[in-house]
Every structure is written in structure tokens, then in C-alpha cells.
Amino acid sequence: MAEPALENLYREGRAFPPPAEFVADALVNDEAVYSQAEKDPEAWWASHAERLRWMRKWDTVLEWAPPHARWFLGGQLNVSDNCLDRHVDSGHGDQVAYHWEGEPGDARSLTYAELRDEVCRFANALRELGVAKGDRVNIYLPMIPELPVAMLACARIGAIHSVVFAGFSSQSLVDRITDADSKVVITADGAYRKGSVVPLKENADKAMEATDNVSICIVVRRTGEDVAMTDGRDHWYHDVVEGRSTECAPEPMDAEDVLYILYTSGTTGTPKGIVHTTGGYLTQVSATHRLVFDLKPDRDVYWCAADIGWVTGHSYIVYGPLANRATSVLYEGAPDHPARDRFWEVVEKYGVTILYTAPTAIRAFMKWGPELPAGHDLSTLRLLGSVGEPINPEAWMWYAEHIGGGRCPVVDTWWQTETGAIMITPLPGVTAAKPGSAMRAFPGVKAVVVDEGGEPVPPGGGGYLTLQRPYPSMLRTLWGDDQRYRDTYWSRFGDDVYFAGDGAKLDEDGHIWLLGRIDDVMNVSGHRISTTEVESALVDHPKVAEAAVTGRRDDLTGQAIVAYVSLKGDLEGDDALARELREHVADRIGKLARPANVLFTEDLPKTRSGKIMRRLLKDIAEGRELGDVTTLANADIVSAIQASAGDSAKEE
User: Fold this and answer.
1) Closest by CA position to 472, among listed 506, 445, 439
2) Which of 430, 465, 417 is nearest to 445 (CA)?
3) CA dihedral 614, 617, 622, 623 (to 10 degrees)
4) Beta bridge partners of 450
5) What are the CA-CA distances from residue 303 to residues 66, 131, 237, 350, 429 (Å)?
6) CATH number at residue 169
7) Which of 135, 203, 245, 546 is the most exposed place for a label (fewest CB within 10 A)?
8) 305 within a domain of the structure (yes/no)
9) CB within 8 A of 364, min separation 6: which ones?
10) Phi and psi torsions of 303, nearest 5°
11) d(CA 96, CA 98)
């Protein structure tokens, strides 16, 4: 499909339907899936739980005492058993579970049988070292096979894992060790990042010195760096697994036993320990992964290009795909290292059929130009996904045209660390898609956009995105702080309505458009303007590859809009282009949305998972001192943006 056709579909407000040949081959091809789920949500979710292997079937599907839900009470299962042994036992042990690509170019593939054996060896090693059911284990590893192995080994013996993103500082590790009272840290000698080595073991040593909790540290040899090893505490991974049995009976886990804790940032600066349990979480991540991506295990190669340090990796690199017997790509490197077409080399090498990546990555690909993907055979792709933040329509259309060749459905998904699984998304072959819209709630989920008073808004209205029905993968509490759980998520509209701070609007057809967090909504002269809307208008300009918008304090208007803009190719910004971009936004949205400042930058500050750190940009705009930037994939860009901030083009 040519770009003008996609452009017209969007401009005319029409949906972009999946091709007829895809619908004919789809998992479902009518509205029955939605009506069945709405008629009896508990039975709907139970039907997906029944696809798993239970050691003991549940007595009660749901117990709901707002704001606490308990799913599949009385049931017992083991996540590791469901992700590995179940498939080996059914004769699929020789199927590849992961094709792994390391940043330096090393690669290997692990079958389900090989992955199961490695998980059992490590689980036995953990037990031998004294790790037991209920113990907390911090995993501080790069994107290497030992990361999912460690997670699955913990799940196998009932230990609770807490993965810490490998880009985080030692203080972040201290905070997580202390809050969860962890006794074990699993790390590596180092991690590769764009050709450099991140000293993970050194960071872990600093963290362990700052707390008395940790008695066991297991170190994977990844980079070959010389590292200090403390006798009695530190153990090499290869030593502890050597000679261990490949048989390790999976621990029976109650459906509501904790599977993992994953920390997310809090407005007070104190990370929140999101608690996800076993049976409900695995039920929903496997159901959403199978339906949203229309997975065909015997022929698909699936790639979620995220980092396991975030919930996307937990749910859609590890637990969902493995529960569904997917063959996945596990990727260590950055999209542009060692070359900007490395991403497409991987797609071509493994014949990837399903690609799930972030809007920020898509906009970076736009900036580098379509000739990079055009140089590779991407014909195996049949479905594209977007995750992490709302995708602007222009990036959606570029993705569909230049990566999907106009033939691939695009699923734009909304969910959070707290929800654990996809909540709003099109279903390929069922739901049409509109560029930039997440469309409608996943079957069984009740998503409602409400006004200030908690009343549903009509089509064409906007407000607060709420979830008004319990679902299996929902967070159960915050580790050690249930009152904060109640106050943070269940106080704005009542203890039976979940609200985490996201804004959304409904179009005239009633489809959902995510606007980002409400604290990203700017108040300019009394008018509420979404950063997402302004960013989308900027990226709509033919010279703009990517944009991030924030508000800064202004004595006259309350807030003034500051735009950080990255241009396509080798284009350079000047005062004339800045004025042109301000008028472009005013034309598309209105004069009140015209940016007061336009700053041109080669790149935007991003985490390794590709998410733009907008709070950091706000600090720059308001001249505040910046905090820790070690989580960034491109920390050097911050000083360049700061230097240009004082010289930005301003509205006359």
C-alpha cells in the first residue's frame, strides 16, 4: 500500500483494515470473542486458565474484595513447568525457544529441552546454596540467556525474583535490595552497551557494601573483565551449575503466591514494588500474547525488541511467549550498534514474522531513512506491534508502509507495569485499526474514560482512563506497603475503580486514543493541552523525525510549551525552521498549542528500552539540577541539550 493511501485513510478518519488473506487465516474473525467475554468475564478468563497445566485445579475463579482481587483460589501450578516441561513433555523439546543475538555478534539458539535443562541445573544450584520458596532474589543482568534462565529457575523453586534493569545505578540496586529484603544477587562481570562495557559486578559490589542483606552473589561471565570476588559470598555461575542434575521437580505454587516484584518509579522518588502473582498473571499474559499476536507456534518467529528489565520483557519476552511455545528472538544490542541496519539484519537472519517494538524506536528508524530497512528482506513479517507509549499516527503509517510493506496489520497496545498484561489493543483479524489509536479494550477488560466526576464521557470526549473490572494479571499490592497501593491506584474514583494517572479520549466512533499521563498534560492560559498531541503535530512536519514536548513554568500563561525536536537525516535546525514548526503546530492544533521554545537536538534522552525521559527534559526546561542519568542509553546527549537550551528559538 503506498504512503498516500495510508495518509488518506488517516486524514479521512477511516480505519486501516487487515488484508483479506490475513482475516481468512486469523485466529478469530468476528465479534464473538468480545461478546463471549462480556457475557461472562470470569468464565472467559477461566477458559484461558484451562489451557495451562495445573497441579491442582482451582475451586473459585475470582474473589473480589475491592481493591483486592484473588484469582483461581485453591489452584496450584508452576510457571516454569508451564513454560518449559509442558512443551517438552508434549514432544516439542527440539523446537527453538530463543535465538539469541549478542551485541558483539556472538549468537546461539536454545531449544525448549536445552532451556529446561539449564533452568533445572541453576534451580538445583540455588537450592544447594540455600535459596528457598519465598526468598527474594535480585537479578541484575544484561540481555543474555542467563537472564530468563535465572527468572525461570526462581519460579521453579518458588523464590520471588526482582529484575533490576542493567542500566540502573548501584543506588537503584540498593533501594530494591533493601525494600524487598533480598538475600541473593545474580549479576555479570559486565554488560555491553554500544561497544563499551558497563561494570555490573562493580556496581553490584557497591550496592552489597551498602546493605547487610545479601549473603549470596552469583556472577555470570559475559565480558571477561577482571572483577573482585568475595570468598563465601560470590560464586561464578558456570561453577555452580557445572555437574548439576537436569532434573528438578517444580515447586507447587498456589495461584496467589508471588511470582515476582518489579519496581517502578514513584512520584515521591521512592520506587514502588509492584507485586504480581502466579496463576492469574500467567493466564492473562499467555492469553493476550496468543490472541494479540495471533501466534502460530509451529511457524512464527516472534521478536519483542524490549529489555527484560521492564515489564514488557517479563510478560512478552519471557512468560507469555514461553507459555505459548513461541520461538523468540532475544537481543542484547542497541538498534543502531554497530550499524544502523543491525535491527533489520536480525529480522532477515531469523525470518522474524512478528515484530513488537517501541514508538521511539520507530521514530528513530524514520530519522535514519527508509533505505536502511529497504536494504533487507523483510518479507517474512506478517504482523507489527507497538508498545511503551502512545504512537503518533505518522510513525504508525511509516511503520506500516516501510516495515510492513502495507500488508501487515499493526497492533498498538496499552498496558503498564501495574496491569502486567495488554489491556487495550486491536485484535488482528477482528478489530480494524486506526493509526495512533489503541482502539478498544481486550476482551474481558472493562476500560472506561471518565470525567472529573467519574462519569463515562461520550464519543468525542476526553478525560481519565480507568479500569472498572478485576482482571487476572492485575497487581495485587505494593510490596510491604498496602496503604500506598490503595492511595496510589484506588482512591481517585473509589476503591473498585483503578486509575493510574493516564489520560485518554474517545473519537466519534468510541475508539480509545491514549494521551499519556495526566501529569504530562500542560495547562496553558487555562487550557489543557496534551504533550502527545503537540508531539504528533510536530512529527507530522516533513522535516521532523522525532519530538518530545514538556511544559515549563511561565508567569503569564501558567505554563509555556517547550519542544525538543530531532530532524530527519542531516538536516539542521535554525530560527526560520523553528518559526515554521511553531506555526505548523498552531495550524494543526490551535494558537494556544504553539511552542514558546523549539530546541533542535541530534537525539532525545532515552532509556535503553527506547522510552524518552520527559521528566529530564522538563528539568532542563526549568533550569533544575539533573539527577542520576546513568539509566540513559545516550547520557552524553543531555549536556548537548542543556547547552542549546539557553539559545533556543523563542516566539516573538
Assistant:
1) 445
2) 465
3) 140
4) 456, 464
5) 37, 32, 27, 10, 20
6) 3.40.50.980
7) 245
8) no
9) 335, 336, 545, 546, 610
10) -135, 110
11) 6
Identify the three-state secondary structure at position 16. Answer: strand
Domain boundary among 254, 277, 306: 254
Q: With respect to residue 359, please indicate whether it lies within any of the assigned structural domains.
A: no
Q: Are 251 and 155 in contact, with CB atoms under 8 Å apart?
A: no
DSSP state of 508: T
Residue 285 amino acid letter: V
> What pTM value is reported for the model?
0.85
Q: What is the DSSP string of 291-350?
A: HHTT--TTT-EEEE-S-TTSHHHIIIIIIHHHHTT-EEEEE-S-TTSS-TTHHHHHHHHH
- C-beta of residue 192 within 8 angstroms of C-beta of residue 223: yes
Distance CA 384, CA 355 (A): 5
Cell of 295: 501466534
Concatenated DSSP letters of 207-254: HHHT-S---EEEEE-SS-------TTTEEEHHHHHTT--S--PPPPEE
Task: Please report whether residue 489 resides in a domain.
Answer: no
Question: Which amino acid makes up residue 424?
Answer: I
Contact 173, 203 (CB under 8 A): yes
Residues 356-378: pLDDT tens digits?
999 888 988 988 999 999 999 99
Task: Please answer whether residues 73 and 59 qualify as being in contact, where contact means their C-beta atoms are separated by less than 8 angstroms.
Answer: yes
**Ramachandran bin of 337, using left for φ above 0, alpha for ψ from -120 to 50, beta for the remaining angles:** beta
Helix axes 32-39, 41-49, angle to 10 degrees: 110
Distance between the two ends of the chain, CA-based, in angstroms? 42
**Percentages (nearest 5) of helix, strand, coil residues in the chain:** 35, 25, 45
**3-state secondary structure at position 26:** coil
pLDDT of residue 226: 95
How far is it, in rounded angstroms, from Cα 290 to Cα 383?
A: 13
Cell 525470518 belongs to residue: 351
Of the CA atoms within 13 Å of residue 37, those in its CB half-sphere come to 15
**Strand 383-386 to strand 160-163: parallel, antiparallel, or no bridges (unpaired)?**
unpaired
DSSP per residue, 373-393: HHTS--TT--EEEE-SSPPPH
Helix (H) or strand (E) holding 484: helix 482-489
Domain boundary among 196, 228, 254: 254
Which residues have CB under 8 Å from 37's CB, separation 6+? Answer: 44, 443, 444
Exposure string over 538-573, b if 16+ CB within 10 A, otherwise e: bbebeebbbbbbbbbeeeebebbbbbbbbbeeeeeb
What per-residue confidence (pLDDT) applies to 102? 96
CA nearest neighbour of 614 among 649, 576, 641: 641
Q: What 3-state DSSP class applies to 534?
A: helix
Domain count, the chain: 2
Whether the ω angle into residue 426 lies within 30 degrees of 0, i.e. cis, is no
Distances (CA, A) of 350 to 301, 373, 549: 7, 15, 37
Residue 501 lies in a domain: no
**Bridge partners for 254 per DSSP:** 76
What residues in the chain have per-residue pLDDT under 50? Answer: 1-15, 17-29, 267-268, 648-652
Q: Which domain holds residue 243?
A: 110-254
Distance between CA atoms of 506 and 344, rounded to whole angstroms?
A: 35
- We report the CATH number of the domain holding residue 588 as 3.30.300.30
Q: Which pLDDT value is given to residue 547?
A: 87
What integer pLDDT is reported at residue 5 of this predicted model?
Answer: 45
Would you call the peptide bond into 67 cis, given omega within 30 degrees of 0 as the criterion?
yes
